[in-house]
Design brief:
Layout (H helix, E strand, L loop, with lengths): L3 E3 L2 E2 L2 H14 L3 E7 L2 H14 L2 E2 L8 H10 L6 H7 L2 E5 L10 H5 L16 E5 L12 E5 L6 H12 L11 H12 L3 E7 L5 H14 L4 E7 L3 H14 L5 E2 L6 E2 L6 H7 L4 E6 L17 E5 L9 E6 L9 E5 L4 E5 L11 H20 L1
Parallel strand pairs: 3-4, 3-12, 5-6, 5-8, 6-7, 8-9, 12-13, 13-14
Antiparallel strand pairs: 1-2, 1-14, 4-10, 10-11, 15-16
Helix pairs in contact: 1-11, 2-9, 2-11, 3-8, 6-7, 6-8
Length: 375
């Protein structure tokens, strides 16, 4: 079975590593995109980007960046579903479909009543759904109140509630004044509350307003947020990038210290403008993921992907790797627990290398150049 290719022709792993290293040395600005992989491969990709002076992004980062930007700029109280199902006595749902990216979460979250913590143990759980579609329902025994609000008006509604919570004046908006004050009082009365929203439903200003509202509530009670992201992998990559560089993706490592700019270092923009000249695509989660992200156009590609029987046409060098969590054990972000968790694959199938092994081998090839550049 072929596991590596150069210009579409099968070759040995060693020759492919050498050829890929040559491309990285010659590149003025490589993009490390995709990052559909386990934690070990993401960390290895960041390490290789550091050695090559590249930019780190994720192929789905556009879907999370409004919320990520709000968290980065204003901070956040962040919860885990496994804790909120046992603590939260009052839940604020925001948006028309806060569980769009986690359809099994309502059944998990709303099962039973709070049973952890003296502030909420034994209380009946109450839910207010701001922006609920007509006729919306939820599982479980929680008391649910639907508050109609158009998606475009959510930010205004949240700003009104936040003003009412602070006992400040507010003008006309999508909510009636009495209803706004009532909702603010209801939130303030939580023993331990949680605001849940889809990262797809709020723009950066809306997310910042909701996070600010929750921050204000913590002056008098306990409240947290549970953003639901479109896929655990992209949020996990943002967290891993934050650990390694101090910034949540869209980071350049070309001038030594990490530099962060969510517009300047967006992979699609760099590819379209011609500033980047090489793509390293890491796609190691399973079958059918060998095609590089479309947004990177016609850039030459170093592909590190699982499920490949042949390399992508745009790939100058390609490596077939084991699928993380299926062919080898891996660690992945698990939204249900709000943290990273191991996934066992049992007996490893076949002899394919992991994505992390390939990326680390490339970094080792570049190590002498990295040391010379730092000297």
């Amino acid at each position: 079975m072929d596991i590596a290719w150069i210009d579409g022709q099968p070759t040995s792993r060693e020759k492919a590593v050498a050829a890929a290293a040559d491309l990285l040395r010659a590149s003025r600005l490589p993009i490390f995109d995709g990052l559909r992989a386990d934690l070990a491969a993401i960390r290895a990709a960041i390490g290789l980007a550091r050695a090559a002076g590249g930019v780190i992004d994720h192929h789905s980062s556009a879907a999370i960046y409004p919320t990520i930007s709000a968290i980065r700029d204003s901070g956040a109280f962040l919860a885990a579903p496994a804790e909120m199902r046992r603590r939260a006595d009052r839940i604020l749902l925001v948006g028309p479909d806060p569980f769009a990216h986690a359809p099994d979460l309502p059944d998990f979250l709303l099962a039973g009543e709070p049973d952890l913590g003296t502030r909420t143990r034994g209380h009946q759980r109450q839910v207010v759904w701001l922006g609920a579609p007509e006729g919306a329902t939820l599982p479980g025994k929680a008391s649910v109140r639907l508050v109609r609000c158009e998606k475009a008006d959510l930010t205004d509604a949240l700003s009104m509630i936040r003003a009412a919570l602070a006992d400040r004046r507010f003008g006309q908006g999508p909510l009636q004044a009495d209803e706004t004050r009532e909702l603010a009082g209801w939130l303030k009365g939580a023993g331990f509350g949680c605001a849940i929203f889809s990262a797809s439903d709020l723009d950066a200003l809306g997310a910042e307003m909701l996070l600010g509202l929750v921050g204000d509530l913590n002056a008098g009670t306990r409240f947290s947020t549970l953003p639901v992201f479109p896929g655990d992998e992209v949020y996990g990559a943002a967290l891993a990038a934050t650990w390694a560089t101090g910034f949540p993706l869209r980071v350049s490592l070309g001038r030594g210290a990490p530099e962060h700019d969510p517009t300047l270092f967006e992979a699609g923009r760099l590819a379209a403008s011609g500033e980047a000249d090489l793509l390293i695509d890491v796609s190691a989660l399973g079958e059918g993921e060998s095609a590089p992200p479309e947004r990177t156009g016609s850039l030459p590609v170093i592909a590190v992907a699982s499920g490949m029987s042949a390399p992508p046409r745009s790939a100058k060098v390609a490596f077939s790797v084991a699928a993380a969590g299926r062919d080898h054990d891996g660690v992945f972000f698990n939204a249900r627990f709000g943290s990273f968790a191991p996934v066992s694959a049992g007996a490893r199938a076949g002899a394919l290398p992991t994505a992390a092994e390939i990326l680390n081998a490339l970094a080792a090839e570049l190590a002498p150049e990295a040391r010379d550049a730092a000297a």
